[in-house]
From TrEMBL:
The chain crosses the membrane at residues 325-346. This is Uncharacterized protein. It comes from the Bacteria. InterPro entries: Bac_ResReg_Asp_Phosphatase (IPR051476), TPR-like_helical_dom_sf (IPR011990), TPR_rpt (IPR019734). One of its GO terms (cellular component) is cytoplasm. It is found in: Cytoplasm. Its main location: cytoplasm. SMART domains: TPR (SM00028). Belongs to the Rap family. Pfam families: TPR_8 (PF13181).
Amino acid sequence: MEEHADSAFSLLKSISSLIGMTPEDKADYALLLAEAADKNGYSLLPCDSLLNLALHVYHEEAKEHAIALLYKGKVQQEMENYADALKSYRMALEILSAYPCEFYWKGFVYNMLGGLYGKQNLYAQAKDMYVKACYNDSLARHNRHFISSLSNLGVAYIGYGNIDSAFICQQRALQLSLSTDSFLLHSLYGNIGDLCGRTGRTSIAITCLKRAYDACRLREDSLQCLWNLGEFYYNNGQLDSALYYLNRSKEAVDIHIRYLSFFDLYAIAKQQGNVEKALEYLEISTELEDSIYSTNVATELEKKTYRWNADAQVRKEQFKAKRRIYTIAMIAVVLLLVIVIIYQQILKNKKI
């Protein structure tokens, strides 16, 4: 799973039907599918119903129940149900506290909590969570997770206002990173470039941003690095260099990067007095903005659909539970009546 997450995900998705599986097998399948989807960076929304099944099957104190809660929390966070996500993560940690050696999963949960707090601009809490994530990742000896947690800690320090500590975290993470891990190098160089830009170290920032692009040159998101460079040059008044990178990043597959690239090109053309080009870029960026809005509306509807389905599933389970209780009560009443009738018949027979 760790080394071949894409193959594992494809294999798991190839299982077209779960008919014939026991509930325990379905629960195990749910965790494997969620883990594979997460490692590949895919949405966990399609795993929601299976994770609900896993939470129902696994014992509430089992490690697997905690893992299911972790991934359920990620689903809730993706749906922007932050309070529910926080509750799921906290419950997962409570269960894992009974498993002293499960450092990997504890580090994972703390990392997610740090991200959740950071998203709410609660940087002090985020910092505390990332520190605990680093501690558990180091005990688990999971280098990639430790580097990720350390880098995230650096980002939290930026929000916390401690730039020096942020630099230390990012530089240490870079020292520990594997040269073959393009995603980590891309992220780390990008973070350090951003820090250098914030502190006026322009030449170092440019070097780091270029290395971030080199690290992910073969990845689909490599053009985002080119936009980062173009944006950096534009903000520093180097328009020729900005145009060079923005004209390349405008070909990105990601519609958001295309929009940002064309909008910056519009701003530069306007600044240079090229009205015709400025209007052309403005028209394109407006069309892209409309497309992004439509996509966001569709995504929001998708999230609401999953939320409604989840609520409907809860109501369905509650109805089933009430029906079971009603059925049991009716059976008990019938049995009681039968016993009373039999007892009365016995008394009559004795009198005779």
